[in-house]
Amino acid sequence: MEDGAVIAPPEPPPLPYSLHTRKKAIAFFWILFVVDTLGQPIALYWALWYATDLSHNLVFSIVTATLGGISVFEYFYRLYNLFRKNSRARPLNARKSWLDFFQINFTIVWLILAAELIAGTVPKEPHVRLVAMVLPTVMFYFGAVYLSLDIFRMLGYKAPFRISSTPKGSVMPTALYALIEDVVAVDGGGGQMYRYALRTRYLSSPYFRRMLFEMNCFWSGGSIVCAAAITAIIFTVSQPVAYTLGWSLPFAWAGIWALITIPWVQSDLRREKKAWAENRGQGGIPWTDDITAPTARTRFASVQEHLPNLLPWVREKQSAPSTPSADGAADGASAADGAPAPDGTAAPDGQTTH
């Protein structure tokens, strides 16, 4: 072995976070969220609209006033965690006033929903179908934004601004990476330690990046298609049915997608580990988000071999590993902001050591 050579670890860099130890907290949150966002608006609508003499405008004023309590709490909880003094949850190497990417989109979508609900409930006779579009609107928004990031990534665009822990000017990150980083670090309590560990895994494993890319296409593309189908249903069926389906079908879609995702990700993580052990899970420019880096076949690629026409637009460009150049080295330095140095050393707050 040559002097100074870096010995690759036998497994991909670990992610110091486990859902198994947080099952009760996760279950408690999702029960409250489903009751608040699914059960409450539907139950109040049917009870107040058909079992009382209240005006339709007042019915929807009550429904919208009680809507989204959990989401509002989560919004301000995230703001507090990101802005508080000595916060350990904000993006790596970001200034105190910088929000993470999820919080920015959380804010924008809330403004859109507020306008939608006001327009739907202010008239004396509310626009029931418009109020039923709240969740499909969220699906359209996040699907379009997160799918756009990966389209720009495939086209070779750089990040126009800091996207969570990815600095401005770096390779556009796959959107699911930014989402997982933000949600686990802030909402899940993983903090900057998790942001740093995830970035280490992301930059060191081309297989992991491709898995996140394919999974984001699955969720974002599915979100847009399903939202379009739900919208068509809302503006076709009767108003009571439209309202009920508009608030319930998105949860049915999310449940089905989650059931598909769990075994899919588990299988891909096993494949990544195997590829890494065989030294086929690494490639391209080290510690760089190299979208041309070769990698072992993912589960999706294996399925696509049998169905060659299945979603061909989700393929990233594949080519032989490029030789590091001055430009590549510059991109690597930019992408590694907040990521480990080649020897894997780092300070506790996510700063790299050289």
TrEMBL record:
Record's compositionally biased regions (Low complexity): 322-354
Coiled coil: none
Region (Disordered), start-end ranges: 314-354
Keywords, comma-separated and alphabetical: Membrane, Transmembrane, Transmembrane helix
TM ranges: 25-46, 58-77, 98-118, 130-152, 217-238, 244-265
Matching PANTHER family: AMINO ACID PERMEASE_ SLC12A DOMAIN-CONTAINING PROTEIN
Name of the protein this chain belongs to: Uncharacterized protein
